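Colleagues,

Please find the record for the three-part complex below.
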Amino acid sequence: MTLRDYAIRYGFIVLLLGLVAYFAIAADGFVSPQSAVFIFQSVAITGVLALGVTATLVVGGFDLSIGSVATSAMMAAAYVMVVLEQNALVAVIACLLIGALVGLINGWLIVYMRVPDLLATLGMMFLLVGLQRIPTEGRSIATGMTMPDGSVANGKFSDAFLALGRHRFDFFIPNLIPVSVVVLLVLALLIWFFLEYTRFGRMMYAVGSNERAAELAGAPVKAYKIWAYVISGVFASIGGILLAARLGRGDIASGNNLLLDAVAAALIGYAVLGGAKPNAFGTAVGALFVGILLQGLTMMNAPYYTQDFVKGVVLVVALVFTFALSGRGRR
Amino acid sequence: MNITRRLLGKVALGLAGATMLMPGAFAADKPAPFDKPGVKIALVRYLSTGDFFQAYLSGVEAQSKALGIDLRVLDSRQDAALQSDMVDQAIALGVQGIIIQHGLTESMKDAAQRAVDAGIKVVAFDVNVENPKIPQIEQSDKDLARLALEQAVKDNGESWNAGYVYVAGIAPLDRRNETWVDVKKKYAGIKEVAMFGTLDNPIANSVANQARSVLSAHPDINVMFAPYDEFAKGVKIAVDEAGLNKKIKIYSADISTSDIAAMREPDSAWAATAATNPAVVGQVSVRALAQLLAGEDPGHNVIVPPTLITQKELIDKDIKNMEDLSAKLPQFAHADVAMPAWMPNPNAK
Amino acid sequence: MVGNAVFRVEGLRKSFGRNEVLGGISLELHSGEVTVLMGANGAGKSTLVKIVSGVYERGGGTMTLAGQDFAPNTPAEAIRAGVVTVHQNINDGVVADLDVATNLTLDRLSGRGVPTLFNPARVRREAKAVADRMGLAIDLKARVSDLSLADRQMVAIARALAHQPKVLILDEPTSSLSSVEADRLFALVDRLREQGVAILYISHRMSDIRRLADRIVSMRDGVVSGAFDAKPLDYEGAVNAMLGRKVHLDRIVVRSSAKAVLTVDGLRIAQGARPISLTLGDGEIVAVTGLVGVGKTALAETLFGVRRPLAGAMTMNGKPYAPRSAGDAIAAGVFLVAKDRATSGIVGGFNIERNVSLPFLRRMSSLSVLKRRLERATARRQIEELGIVCRSEKDEMSALSGGNQQKVMVARWMAQSAALFILDEPFQGVDISARRDIAAKLRASANGRATLVFVTELDEALETADRILVMSEHTIVGEHRNADIDLDRLLAEVAGGPLHSAA
């Protein structure tokens, strides 16, 4: 390998390590197990979303609805528990079903109705932002809230559900690792294994690279595409569950920032290890990169708009890595 | 939200009943034009989604019902140009009064003047239309911040290390910030060791992530001033996650049912919040307009005073939601602003 | 040849890098005559058209239009001088989102002396004049995207004729038209011929050529290989000149098969086409040849399950065979090396190893988890077998030459044993040595399966096959054992004998 190859391959990892080193010196208390866990926790939700969107990027698609799927799932979880007074399991299942259903509809729109992916999922995004407000007429959901018909919702977030956001596992230090971080790591491993080591993942990459070739190699291309959106939807709804468990209520929100951060993570992931293609490992590193950056900047009292700026710079640099330096301008 | 639909329904039913039983009631004790029902007014809104605006509307509706007013609601959904057109639309509808709820000075100033020129009475809530003939309804953000901070000083003394959540450029937050700056000047012992904040939605989640970082960078913080309940919610999540809930106290502004639940949690770090009841603000808006229509002067600045709500009060009085809050904290349910003797109180049962 | 040629090309040359595409073409077009230009893929027809229409710069030679030197630097210059080209891809000639009137006058919207403001009334007036002159009966307000292909074609031609050309070049204008639609086009061409336009008509379709040609010029390998203007025209001679024949160095040993693998009975692959019946035997290689557009790819895709036949039945090793997808076909042991590897074969994001394993991932995994060692071993074996030149099985496809890329495509499908192995134009864009390697490999491994190769070039069929079938008009019109071939008869069949001269 030439020096250039090394730069493309490991450049981003080196950048990441450099960043950690810089913050370790510049920000007190940055280097500690707790701090590391904070970073993981702060990227857990966007990370899960980013892993889902990676699946759609792999088949050459895109999913703009993930942010609103997550917030819709959050509302659904709150609605199921607070208004319908069901338990945590029902709430989780309801969220996952919503994610899968939205994914199916997205896939159906794109594959059978031939709506371009960006437009179909954009439409779905608007639809969900509106839909999540209908059951409560635009109110946030919390225990004791008054429903449109005048009754008072008496259910509450079950402890089991809140534990998803608040329980911590012991890991050398007691009460160290929150559930959301474990979920992120498990899902990252799962999707990484799925994409890299199973024939389904391989075929999804083939579909994304040359749809016709994949079809002529016997792959049910339409089914693969739909599955990618189902994965994306389900992952987004898992993100929504974690969000609901952390906030302990159902907040009206568009989830646009979740979407942007997740997409940024996935796109930064293209550059990691010079893959120049969507990949689960890269996405996880990308999410971590953003998390480390924000943690460090916040610890150094940087205001929020500089953080957005820096996030944008990282994304642009990553895209340059991917498309210009590696000379493989392909998505 | 103290004015819930159910309550509202009762009020309306009661009113309807009263009207039917005593057809002369209007003529008897109210000045013209309220001596008979059917006065037409319009509420021209800029912002409408969210709990606050929902509650504000319910306040407007309740007071309108109490006065026998025919209310039209025009909602521009954050479209400044449309909101301005809607004022003209309201003029065309032949309304006698208009409430302008939020908006941009630039787009609403001329529209408000057109309404005044058409002989229509106008009040404005939370938007400065720079017109001496138009009373400004305000919830006092400075008072909100002042009440919360006074409580913080009472609880923690005059010397503490503060984390402050603030995003510049949002008018109410900027006004709350002015008080914070004053308080810091007044008490030399109060040090702002970190300032952070973001409006990335879901806001509470984003603020929680920031607050986690801030807490690890500044372990010496013992008070968090988060003068917006979404901020406070996020800070509380971070404080709980860091296990610092017994060490840190949070002071905030605004209130909702879920905020009440969060404050009531055992060992909750959220010590107090100051809030104006949005439904009361809605009622006051209508009342000030009614005074204008009846030829009375409500004054140019109609200020709705906030209420301090402490964790202790919530627990002692067993307040679990906004209805309890209205019922058990009378100063929260009703403000004695723009209340001439003839004005019906929509909260009276 | 007659001396009154309106357009004359003399010794035209063009090279791309070291690759000479035109090696001195001379051509004359006469007023009021249709000159048909024939040539196989890669003969240099499109390059010629692009030079004449001002897209490419010529490498050498002269062109004259009505005695004047003709050297257009841009397509616009060529059009202004009176040489107008209607390109093969209809949608290049029209703007789909605009209405017919605007399309007809589009060329007047730019250039010098055009008013800045767009005047719809004037546009419609001018468009109407253009349409009337051509006898075009299309609603001028209709959007082009709503029109049929034939109507779009008419609009594209009308648009070209709005310039009142002296020379009109039509590049395969009927390739996407039905026969009824083509008739309308022919009527228009007749009309233009009467008006004295010199027409260069490029086509493979014998029925078109028989209907229209006053003269035929055949091209092969960048030179004119034959010009025919004596009446009656010698169509077979023209085809022969176009396809040509090289000396075959190694004649193959022809085998015949006893055991039938695939039987096709009454298969109809296009509306109005005659049914196809054929039998493919174990161990034999059958080549299907025919001009471009006679339905070779359609037949290949029908056998592979990605296209449904209109009628007919297939039997594979005694069992009914009716694949509904490529997956079905692969499961039944029918493999296809598809035409045009760049768009339908190569997965650009994958290296050699992953390209080879693509269709057989299920067989290379247990519990859906890929067996990477098996995958690598297979790729290495196939690289060895076909002699693919590369550094390792991890090489990117883009690093390989065209011939090696094609070998990877063949290697992909030879990794598992097939019952029926179909190759559609496997020698396209492949150098001569790779072509020999692939053919030799096919012959060496032919036992145990039936092999069907679709080729346009006759040479490729003669080099590879035991049996040669000739296709024309979406059906099979001839069969030859590749031992004592009656080439004249074969060429006549390719040219579409009198028996099949449709419309």
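The radius of gyration of chain C is 25 Å.

Comments are welcome before we finalize the supplementary table.
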